[in-house]
Amino acid sequence: MAAELRTGRWGRSHLVGASFFVVLLFCCFAYYLAFAAEFRYYDDDSGLFQLALNAHDHLVYLENISRLRDGEFAYYELRNDVGIAAMYSVLAAIAPFLVDESFSLIALAFNLLTLCLCYALYSAICDRLQLGIAGKVSFVANLSLIYFAQLINKDMLTVLVFLLAAWSGLRGRVLWLLALLPLMAIIRQQLALFTLIYVLLMVVRRPIRWMVFLYVLTAFVAGLLSVFASLFGAESLEDGFTAYLVEFNRQYYVGYIIFNPLRALQYVVDAYLSFSFWTETGGIDTAKLLRLPQLVLLVCLVAPLSKLVTRFASALQQPSCKPLVVVVASYMLVWLMNPTVNARYVMLITPILVLFALHVRRHKLLASR
Q1: Which of 37, 67, 110, 164 could form a disulfide with 72 if both were Cys (CB 3.0 to 4.6 A apart)?
Q2: 258, HSE (Cβ side, Cα atoms, 13 Å)
Q3: If you count DSSP H runs as helices and E runs as strands, how many of each does the chain have, helices first?
Q4: Quick one: pLDDT at residue 235?
Q5: Which SS3 state, helix, strand or coil, does residue 156 take?
Q6: Whole-angstrom distance, CA of residue 231 vs CA of residue 63
Q7: Is 76 a residue whose pLDDT tops 70?
Q8: CA-to-CA distance for 311 and 273, rounded, in angstroms?
Q9: What pTM was computed for the model?
């Protein structure tokens, strides 16, 4: 009887979760029709709903696709912008019927396929952690996935890699991820470094000691790289605190080691500044608006989520928590090497944060002694 009850609940959670996911897919397509289908007419600052697309990055990728066709780049060249452009050039050759002038349709198709894989992994993690219906439904709270589904970008693939890492860790099989390193390096160099760090921290006996060592190493390397602003591009360095950090590194090379905790706080603050979503022209910053449901969910889960900090060592000793914690730690080590702070980067890791918080709350884990 108990087994039948569990089977019924399992089937019901899959049905409800899949139903909500289908609605999310429909929203992605509707959003595409509203903003991306006629990309050549898109303007960031027109209408009520503004900044609805990551148009800047998409145009960079389109330019690189054109340059690849003209032979200006090698397809195997390990640069973030070139790698994703090479991938879409191959996709265009495979499915030319999906290619339009702006590559918006083929980007939607590929991103929706990636989104389906993301949900499959998220659902599998929910099953393994016994999170029930609430766990699967929580996936659709991240409406930034609608934003990531539009145009050419690396964000949807990044979410997929984080979920894949967590799922592999929960199954106790992480070494096979190393086979994906060449592909990850082509898509996004940070993903290759993330995977190396994640696998290392999952297999070593004293992960906290390794985290400290890797923090110093990655922060020092990032400090050295930030001195050479041309490696990142002037538009990446902006001004304010980032510019101050670069100048500090030019003199002492240890700016990231000292200031990374403050930069981590900046990520959180920048994400929650999304609640101020009115633009200077009187419109709505659509990207910020889409972040709000997930951010509200994280606020509601702040008590179990805080255990990620207050009970960090204990979480690493909990087999069901460790993969999620290590994904977050690896993400922080790698993304804090980036000279810029952007709320969009925070939304990449929020599915893992939600899974951790739901798991701790549902099973009453990591209680204070």
Answers
A1: 67
A2: 10
A3: 18, 2
A4: 44
A5: helix
A6: 19
A7: no
A8: 27
A9: 0.92
